[in-house]
Amino acid sequence: MARTRYAPDRGLATRMVTTMFLIGLLYVVLVGGLMVLLRGAWPVVLLFAGGLFIAQFWFSDRIAAFSMGAREVTPEQAPELHGAVDRLCALADMPKPRVAIADTDVPNAFATGRNQKNALVCATTGLLRRLEPDELEGVLSHELSHVAHRDVAVMTIASFLGVLAGMITRVGLWGGFGRGNRDNNTAILMLLIPLVSAVVYCVSFLLTRLLSRYRELSADRAGALLTGRPSALASALTKVTGQMARIPTRDLRQAEAFNAFYFVPAFSGESLARLLSSHPTLEQRLDQLGRISVQLGRG
């Protein structure tokens, strides 16, 4: 990993390695089990799994950016946004990512990319309209820390492996397994494959959620330490979270699917999604920023 001036986080690195190992192990066990169960269909399983994984690894950043409506902009089109990114990249001693804007009133920001060289950072028009320059820099510093720590790439791959496990299982289910023996073996497989799919998806979902909550706290910490203004990030968090309640429900529901990438999660109401949120609570984030502010004051 290319070195930057963002504060390293050993806890985040350990969690990323552990998450990738456990999900990768889960994935290997699932594919191996399907190869044994499906017998004649195992080449299809391997080709399907390998092809989708390669495609996701190379194109995940473009897929995510396109899905969230990100439009790359030039310094002439968005001078303030580019200026903020330029200052932060110079401060962090890291390559400048591509800069984009998403035309939505939902105030948020996100970063994608498997490494620093092909990263993209995006802010929504709703965010740019509501935040002051120092608050915007706090948010962008948070997002750039995801790129510097490479946790955005790990989250993309980890979440994809869980979804892929379910897709492989469905292909096997629809692929006509057990054609030569359609009695008891087929009935057993009809019960086992959906069950395995559900278990794999649930385990991968929980692992990525646990990692996602920690990485958001890590990004808040690294971003605040880089700029030296945790109060600006705290102000942005409070403002953006408060503004979410004023966004139309339809827009929030469209954004909910991408909460794992966003600076602040978008919720359309009090729901189970809050209990399984990809982000820590606002109180946890503000409490950490308060402690950082005290530490910086003493320093």
From TrEMBL:
Cofactor mode of binding and number, as noted = Binds 1 zinc ion per subunit.
Q: Tell me one GO molecular function of this protein.
A: zinc ion binding
What Gene Ontology terms for biological process does this UniProt record contain?
proteolysis
**Pfam families named among the record's database cross-references:** Peptidase_M48
| UniProt keyword Mitochondrion present | no
Q: Which residues bind Zn(2+)?
A: H142, H146, E216
Q: Where in the cell is it found?
A: Cell membrane
Question: EC?
Answer: 3.4.24.-
CDD domains per UniProt: M48B_HtpX_like
Keyword list, A-Z: Cell membrane, Hydrolase, Membrane, Metal-binding, Metalloprotease, Protease, Transmembrane, Transmembrane helix, Zinc
Peptidase M48 domain span: 76-290
Look up and give the membrane topology term. Multi-pass membrane protein
Transmembrane region(s)? 12-35, 41-59, 152-175, 187-207
Active site per the UniProt annotation: E143
Indicate whether Metal-binding appears among the record's keywords. yes
| HAMAP family documented for this protein | Pept_M48_protease_HtpX (MF_00188)
List, alphabetically, the NCBIfam families matched. PRK02391.1 (NF002669)
Family statement drawn from the similarity comment of this UniProt entry: Belongs to the peptidase M48B family.
User: Would you tell me the protein name for this molecule?
Assistant: Protease HtpX homolog
Originating organism: Streptomyces palmae
Q: Which gene encodes it?
A: htpX
